[in-house]
Amino acid sequence: KTVDLVNDQKMKASTNVRHIVIPCSASARSELIPDIIRCYSSGGRTIIFNETKDSASQLAGSLPGARALHGDIQQAQREVTLSGFRSGKFMTLVATNVAARGLDINDVQLIIQCEPPRDVEAYIHRSGRTGRAGNTGVAVMLYDPKRSNISKIARESG
After folding, report:
1. CB of 60 within 8 A of CB of 94?
2. Burial class of residue 118 (count of CB atoms within 10 Å of its CB; 0-12, 13-18, 19+)
3. Model confidence at 149, in pLDDT bands (50, 70, 90)?
4. 19-60, pLDDT tens digit by residue?
5. Global confidence as pTM
6. Is the dihedral of CA 59, 78, 106, 115 positive or negative?
7. Domains of the chain listed by start with CATH number
């Protein structure tokens, strides 16, 4: 599906992106994410979205070669981090919504959302970091079945 902001004003997920939803408790995420990266990144770039700055920093610290990107990081360091990610110095970026919009990063193969975002628009923007410029990609959304109701996002994102 494509983003169509002219006709019915509803945003839809890209058809160039394979969307996968995986039930996973919060406590099991850090163990599951490396397997998801191995399975779906094809050796390419991965962006992992977290809701909080602390969780982004903690997860980045637990993944070999990953770097965090969020609002508590100084702008100069954010630029160094983005430059390293773009150049392939490291392949996994763990971020908050600071990376959901406005970043032009080529060849992102995989997006992982550690929990469903608060609204459909955030899901579309996050998953839209892959599958760009005619390329394909994968967007994985983790959710805790005891805490999350993902039906609205699935229904409204197409």
Report:
1. yes
2. exposed
3. low
4. 899 999 888 998 999 999 999 998 899 999 998 999 999 999
5. 0.83
6. positive
7. 17-157 (3.40.50.300)
